[in-house]
Amino acid sequence: MNKYQKFDFKKFSLGQEKCAMKIGTDGILLGAWVDVNSPATVNILDVGCGSGLISLMIAQRNPYANIKGIDIEDGAVEQAKDNVDGSSWAKAIQIEKSSLQEVKSDVEYDIIVSNPPFFKNSLKSDADERNSARHTDTLSLSDLFQNSARLLKSGGKLFMIYPFDQLEDIYKIAALHDFYLVKQRTVSHNVNKSPKRVLLSFSYQQKPEKVIKKPFYIRQPHSNEYSDEYIELTKDFHPFL
């Protein structure tokens, strides 16, 4: 697929030609996995919203969600606004140009979700916007947890996806800011491959009764077909499932 082509999901479509970072598996997994099944109004902050993918996935899943998406990239903000305005959830989602560090809010958020920049010490491209979307210069792990603690209510949740090889650093920084691990899914291509990503849910200030840790496999072990769990998780979004 051409990287600038509109990406069609079952209930919304996303343009992505103005975004530095294109739609990928990380964002789809996180948007489908984040726990937003509350019968009450839920205030949600989507950090680094890009094209608006995760915000729209959450809005589709929870009609009570009140979502703010933020990004520091002009093209992403413009793109997300276009995508949200063209969807059925324009009233539920507000898009703003802002860094997480700059966010001020009159409400305490129930959920913060982020598919954050996480490339460290790697060769940067010539495009400044793509660099800011991919690298931790603009949002380090410490910044993410410190500012999430500032904006979340007690018991609020932080959901994120990150490289698996940085898991120990994540544990340490989370503990410094009073976050407790609730759920962890190590993400691998299949059972025969080592994990590359990890889906994480943390609770702010409230320790859970139990912690869930399970692997997640995108594909079947001996074929390139999607795993049953991937299909179950994303079937409400992918038009081919």
TrEMBL record:
- Localization in the cell: Cytoplasm
Q: Please write the reaction equations for the catalytic activity of this protein.
A: adenosine(37) in tRNA1(Val) + S-adenosyl-L-methionine = N(6)-methyladenosine(37) in tRNA1(Val) + S-adenosyl-L-homocysteine + H(+)
UniProt xrefs under InterPro entries = DNA_methylase_N6_adenine_CS, SAM-dependent_MTases_sf, Small_mtfrase_dom, tRNA_Adenine-N(6)_MTase, tRNA_adenine-N6_MeTrfase
Name a single GO cellular component: cytoplasm
Q: What are the GO MF terms of this UniProt record?
A: nucleic acid binding; tRNA (adenine-N6)-methyltransferase activity
The EC number on file is 2.1.1.223
Q: Which UniProt keywords apply?
A: Cytoplasm, Methyltransferase, S-adenosyl-L-methionine, Transferase, tRNA processing
GO biological process annotations for this chain's record?
A: methylation; tRNA processing
Q: Give the primary localization class.
A: cytoplasm
Q: Which Gene3D superfamilies match?
A: Vaccinia Virus protein VP39
Role this protein plays: Specifically methylates the adenine in position 37 of tRNA(1)(Val) (anticodon cmo5UAC).
The family this protein is said to belong to: Belongs to the methyltransferase superfamily. tRNA (adenine-N(6)-)-methyltransferase family.
Protein name, please?
tRNA1(Val) (adenine(37)-N6)-methyltransferase
Question: What is the native source organism of this protein?
Answer: Flammeovirga agarivorans
The beginning of the lineage is: Bacteria, Pseudomonadati, Bacteroidota, Cytophagia, Cytophagales
